[in-house]
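Researcher: I'd like a candidate sequence for this fold, 198 residues long. If you have to choose between options at a position, lean toward the conservative one.
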């Protein structure tokens, strides 16, 4: 079972990233737990295998966390779409973190001349104190699964009601990575149309 975050205007498929354009990302390392960098790298590697998409780490950034992130920031990133921002954010920066929300993620999409849409950038915000608590109590694999869940949102998956899938809104101890429904959806998201006109 899987669900997509957004559908094309014609209803014939999901909005996707272009599979022929690498998805660049930067990490704001402030407040990161000791294992944070490795967990992010591992989660992106697993998302790449599941989707076939190519993720490229562009290093660290000082970009602040904002509610409405601009997908085009030429003064900071040059004349290109801004890379995906991965940030270890605080509940002050991301009020949605609340009591039991460990992360949130999504992508910005743009319209093409033919009316179809494509994701061009995005953000992944993670609560470092909650992730460290998960590491301490449930281990690194459980923490990585949380980040993989958020990367599922980044590439275009929505939550599902099935608790056996990683994209269920609440983490399940027995689910330590993408499951069959997740993988089916991720494969479709990685097989979108090649877009070079943005």
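Model: Candidate sequence:
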């Amino acid at each position: 079972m899987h669900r997509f975050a957004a559908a094309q205007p014609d209803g014939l498929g999901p909005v996707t990233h272009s599979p022929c354009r690498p998805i660049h990302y930067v990490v704001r390392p402030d407040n990161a737990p000791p294992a944070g960098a490795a967990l992010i790298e591992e989660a992106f590697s697993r998302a790449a295998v599941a989707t076939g998409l190519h993720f490229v780490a562009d290093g660290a950034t000082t970009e602040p966390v904002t509610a409405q992130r601009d997908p085009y920031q030429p003064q900071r990133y040059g004349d290109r779409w801004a890379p995906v921002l991965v940030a270890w954010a605080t509940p002050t920066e991301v009020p949605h973190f609340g009591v039991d929300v460990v992360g949130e993620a999504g992508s910005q999409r743009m319209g093409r001349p033919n009316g179809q849409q494509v994701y061009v950038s995005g953000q992944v915000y993670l609560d470092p104190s909650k992730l460290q608590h998960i590491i301490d109590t449930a281990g690194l694999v459980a923490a990585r699964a949380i980040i993989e869940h958020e990367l599922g949102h980044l590439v275009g998956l929505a939550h599902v009601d099935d608790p056996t899938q990683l994209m269920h809104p609440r983490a399940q101890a027995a689910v330590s990575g993408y499951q069959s429904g997740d993988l089916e959806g991720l494969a479709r998201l990685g097989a979108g149309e090649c877009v070079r006109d943005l």
